[in-house]
Amino acid sequence: MTRGGHAFVLLDSEEAHTQVVGDFVIEGVRRGECVLLAGLGARERRLWSRLRRSGVVREGWQPSATTAVRLVPPDPDRLAEAVAGALAEGYAGVRFSGAITTPGVNAFEAAVAPLVAEHPVTVLCPYFRSQLEPGQHEALTALHDTEVDVAPVYDDGVFRLTRRGELLYLAGELDSGNADALRAVLQATLAAGGRPASWDVADLHFLDVGAADSLVAAAAGPPGLTLVGASRLTARLVRLLADRHPDRTVDLVDALADAPPDDAAEGAHR
Length: 270
Description:
Layout: E1 6-11, H1 14-30, E2 34-38, H2 43-54, E3 69-71, H3 79-88, E4 94-98, H4 108-118, E5 121-128, H5 136-143, E6 146-147, E7 154-155, E8 159-164, E9 167-174, H6 179-190, E10 197-207, H7 209-219, E11 225-228, H8 232-242, E12 250-253
Parallel strand pairs: 1-5, 1-6, 2-3, 2-4, 4-5, 9-10, 10-11, 11-12
Antiparallel strand pairs: 7-8, 8-9
Helix pairs in contact: 1-2, 6-7, 7-8
InterPro entries: MEDS_domain, STAS_dom_sf
Domain MEDS: 6-144
Protein name: MEDS: MEthanogen/methylotroph, DcmR Sensory domain
């Protein structure tokens, strides 16, 4: 997002929330901004796990008043103070997001509008599509600079598949009993038109043997398959299964090279 923007996004699942808000946080940390988050509740654990997988924080990291990623009270009247404090510390910009889980236009909307207008503040308001009230989409469009399009290729609430250019992003849990999800991955891969397939699996936190075998067998034929950011367990499983299919080519590479330093969000701004 452009610095200083005020956007909203409609989400279809919890996996979408983790992925979209996680991307927003990671982008802010990489830009040297302070990221403020409100109302996460039980979603904290999922989001911190994603930050660890991306290399933004280390194992055991927790947000505090001195880290670049901070929790703020779910009180719109206290947001301006938190923003002013972060800017006074020397951050070039501030980001604000969280989780909106109640119907209707959120109370923070009125609070963030003047902050975005007067300061280098970037806001992403994440609404769940299932909780939209009649006419609310139009109201949100009028309140914001833009709506962020995060439409997935597939999302059933457990497994989510998205595309960015030629790279497919697999997130959540994928098992052999989820035939629709497997079919969606293979169809999206075939849509590459014979070009080498690349899947980012950094956010794929469960993959069973049956699903892995089906995907390797079907998708790793010429011109081959590249898996980006696979966990140790996923990498080991795929290597073992690839040996069953000597005519299949699977390459495993680390996460994309633009990751920030491992402790980028841990210390106070210098």
